[in-house]
Amino acid sequence: MRKALSILGVIVLVVVIYVGYTFYSTGFFRTIKPINTDKIISKVALPGVEDIEVEPEERFLILSSDDRAGRRDGNPTQGGLYLMNLDDKHFTPKLLTQNFEGDFYPHGISMLKIDSTTHRVWAINHVNNAHTIEIFDLYNADSLMYISTLTNKLMISPNDLVALSENEFYFTNDHGYTSNLGVLAENYLGLKASNVVHSNNGEYRIVAENIAYANGINYDEKKSLMFVASPRDFLVKVYQRNPSGSLDHIEDVYTGTGVDNIEFDKEGALWIGCHPSLLSFTSYASGSKPYSASEVIKIDYHGIDDYNQETVYLDNGSNMAAATVAPYYEGRVYIGNVMDEHFLILDLNE
Description:
Layout: H1 2-25, E1 40-45, E2 49-55, E3 60-65, H2 68-72, E4 80-85, E5 94-95, E6 106-113, E7 118-127, E8 130-139, E9 143-150, E10 158-165, E11 168-173, H3 180-188, E12 194-200, E13 203-211, E14 217-220, E15 225-230, E16 235-241, E17 247-254, E18 258-264, E19 270-275, H4 278-286, E20 294-303, E21 306-315, E22 323-325, E23 328-329, E24 332-337, E25 342-347
Antiparallel strand pairs: 1-25, 2-3, 3-4, 4-5, 6-7, 7-8, 8-9, 10-11, 11-12, 12-13, 14-15, 15-16, 16-17, 18-19, 19-20, 20-21, 22-24, 23-24, 24-25
């Protein structure tokens, strides 16, 4: 009897320790004190703007919009890519994909200027548990033309991507498993099963793995560094990119928050939309909470063990829930989200 009680006690202790660790490691106990909420100058009505790309020379944004809350609640509507002129005082997004044939629920996006009049845009698309990458050309910052659809068996659960040329890009899979049990283990046990995939001229290969929920990805060409967000571990993982396209892991930057999409400013600093409490975000995403906290951090990364981090924006989510992306341009920060009905514009010059 005593032996059985001892075994039961050990099991209970392990469960308590695990539960406590899960709450702690996902930011559940973090105190949210608002930062720069008074800098909000606009709440732009457009649902689920999960990713945003800035074109600084021609002064426009590309917005990836998907009404995920509507789909969750049984009211699906077509998603889309939108363009917003940075000089538009009314902040009016213009739909670009109204002529796209087929279902379109965009996620992560990437954009490259390929000539004087054309930008190429890549967008991850999720339709009925199938995953593709849609490619478009944007002409004269005005009209978008569909080019092609990419599929591959390594597109397990693509989240974000970064294009380096017309024929080369990287994308993250935020999960390595597709079964309910496997996904559960990745989400709550922190199982490191996600990865980064490199595509070059139609050839796909895994170049980084053993990541807990690989999410945002971006490449600093000047430093030949690839940055990958691991929100489950609160890390920005840093890789050296080799000429072959392979990645060598060089260090992890602990951020203390659930990092999502990564953007650069003109000085090369990282601007990241974040989820301070992952469990609160899960409750919000399922519809059981009205909102979850939003955070924006900036990281000045200079080299191994040489970086500075600051919180630029923090809120309990009542202004906008579940921040995912936060590009900075000329004093303004454009903050997107998972499934809120609007995105935010901050003016840090105000």
